[in-house]
Fold each of these.
Amino acid sequence: QKEVEQNSGPLSVPEGAIASLNCTYSDRGSQSFFWYRQYSGKSPELIMFIYSNGDKEDGRFTAQLNKASQYVSLLIRDSQPSDSATYLCAVNQDSGGSNYKLTFGKGTLLTVNP
Amino acid sequence: DADVTQTPRNRITKTGKRIMLECSQTKGHDRMYWYRQDPGLGLQLIYYSFDVKDINKGEISDGYSVSRQAQAKFSLSLESAIPNQTALYFCATSDGGVETQYFGPGTRLLVL
């Protein structure tokens, strides 16, 4: 059973701080990694994805991937109250033609306090 | 207009009733998915379809069935609804490339 683990939180940070969200996964064959943001009662929306070890930056967001440690993280710089949401980590295994399915973590609730 | 739409957005039904949730997309994607989400839990895959003739069970398909009427339409049916099927249901699509999935707005289902 492939697993994706996230700390459920809540993670509370002050406005302007850096929020750090973490995710570990069990399947070493995993190839691509996604971060989704979900506001309460709304649908998940993609923030960014990463394939290669290292960092990938997009505006205030940075995804970090370490395949050796089976660890992916999302950093949010200059956190804003509008960033308050649940962040879902999702993992996909591309190998063997099985690139049909994302396995989602349960999400981390982030609260940014004004 | 939204790329992925779901109808109805909210539904209350009684135990034993048959209901259908519908999903339509204008993104031109071949792959479509149905998920359910329970409070505090992640997204669980119910069924997925790569094209009109290809439908596959996901992790929790028992009690559900699907129909892919066209590339753009994918319906989920609860043959005989039960209270533990109360959940938020999402349809999603992808182009099968990077497997980035795009979600519809969701249907909130309450089974009494």
Amino acid sequence: DAKTTQPTSMDCAEGRAANLPCNHSTISGNEYVYWYRQIHSQGPQYIIHGLKNNETNEMASLIITEDRKSSTLILPHATLRDTAVYYCIAPKAAGNKLTFGGGTRVLVKP
Amino acid sequence: GAVVSQHPSRVICKSGTSVKIECRSLDFQATTMFWYRQFPKQSLMLMATSNEGSKATYEQGVEKDKFLINHASLTLSTLTVTSAHPEDSSFYICSARQGARQPQHFGDGTRLSIL
């Protein structure tokens, strides 16, 4: 997997956009970037993934820089239920096994 | 869509017991399923990858005779922890994906406690 680097933790205000950065400077051309989150005592939840283009779905938006060395997950209107550990993962193309690092512990505050 | 069901959600049993955990993809066919383990305050660690109809591939350090994996159909994989001991107590989580580029979808995990 390409090594990814995320902040250990961040606080966000309820109702505001939450911008979660991820560096993946060693990513290769055919490696996707996947975002998952894990709410306490639950299995991880898939959020979004992308290769080059920005992506948006009902949960979030994913902005990938043109050089693909970093990306930002945007939660447009954070709610208290978005409090979780967020993982940015760039698996090798072959096999696509996910390697979970430490992630970013996001706390949404009222 | 893309729902993965894991059962049971919690197991408490005596040392020496074998425990079977089921992972089902409810609304898609999963060519590949994965089994993870998560200890308290740690991240998920991949244990093994299983493809339907073939033997599972285990990660380094995971004993295949201890953790038996069966992926007999495109919607079901099972993990059996044989002769479980207290050090096997952990949160076991499965995931499934439909194809190589498709995202993995996770079950809600099984909390295993060995007394």
